[in-house]
Design goal:
single chain, about 280 residues, alpha/beta, 11 helices, 7 strands, oxidoreductase, oxidoreductase activity
């Protein structure tokens, strides 16, 4: 079913893992896809896979922490594929493991730069054209530590919680112009990031729970997030704009519950009702 026919999607971090599956699903559903990442060979392979399935895609080597690089990429995307309808920010970094006094300050800040600043850059580059056209959807991937403490992953967690708040702020700013923003937690997926956590000495020392979760059978297929994001791109979950959706969600059940979620002001970063009364 080509539910995204005649649309244009941008997927960052699209060279492997979750991002590759998101890009392929967007193409399967009819979108023309711009695949962005820093490693050319990986995004070219993603494009080859999409083209092998009959889709259309282009690969752009981009450093999301460099705004001029991001801006140039969006100019090229508009020229080669057309105006962007869907932006999926899947890029991510998680290299600083351990208590803050053991983390390399450069690694800790680099996680924040890639995750948070990179998302700000792409949102800034994409949103003006979306606003001018009166439509568009932006999906920002979050993850562990977004809504709870993650002591030995503080840089990653801080950046992902900030992306959640950025998503809320962005949506509240653009929703009146027809542009909606969503946060998606794909769940625990075997990826290059988790493999590094499993194999590195710091990961083994400070994040043993990751291996335990995999041993217990927790391993979310990336197709779940990809299918969810395709539904978001198609407008199925517009009621939940500004809120968190999860790869593990039953999409049919979520659709039935989404008005209740909004009524309860759920799936958002909030103080409790009692705490708000004290502010």
């Amino acid at each position: 079913m080509a539910q995204l026919l005649n649309t244009v999607a941008v997927v960052t971090g699209g060279g492997r893992g979750i991002g590759r599956e998101i890009a392929r699903q967007q193409a399967r559903d009819g979108a023309k896809v711009a695949v962005l990442a820093r490693t050319a060979v990986e995004i070219e392979e993603t494009v080859s896979l999409i083209e092998g399935e009959g889709g259309r895609a282009i690969a752009l080597t981009v450093d999301v922490t460099d705004y001029s690089s991001v801006e140039s990429a969006f100019i090229r995307i508009a020229a080669e594929l057309g105006p962007v309808d869907t932006l999926v920010n899947n890029h991510g970094s998680f290299r600083a493991f351990g208590p803050i006094w053991d983390c390399d300050p450069r690694d800790w800040w680099r996680d924040v730069e890639i995750n948070l600043q990179g998302t700000f850059h792409t949102c800034r580059a994409a949103s003006p054209a979306m606003i001018a056209r009166g439509r568009g959807r932006i999906v920002n991937l979050v993850g562990g530590g977004t809504g709870n403490s993650f002591p030995h992953g503080s840089g990653y967690a801080s950046s992902k919680a900030a992306i959640m708040r950025l998503t809320e702020c962005l949506n509240d700013t653009t929703i009146g112009h027809g542009v909606l923003a969503f946060a998606v937690d794909p769940g625990l997926v075997r990826s290059a990031m988790t493999e590094m956590q499993l194999s590195s000495e710091a990961g083994k020392t400070y994040l043993p729970g990751i291996q335990q979760l995999f041993d217990d059978g927790v391993d979310i297929d990336p197709s779940r997030a990809a299918l969810l994001i395709a539904d978001i791109a198609d407008g199925r979950f517009d009621v939940l704009a500004g809120r968190l959706l999860r790869g593990v969600d039953d999409r049919d059940a979520l659709e039935k519950e989404m008005h209740s979620v909004v009524a309860a002001d759920g799936r958002a970063l909030r103080f409790s009702a009692l705490e708000q009364l004290k502010l």
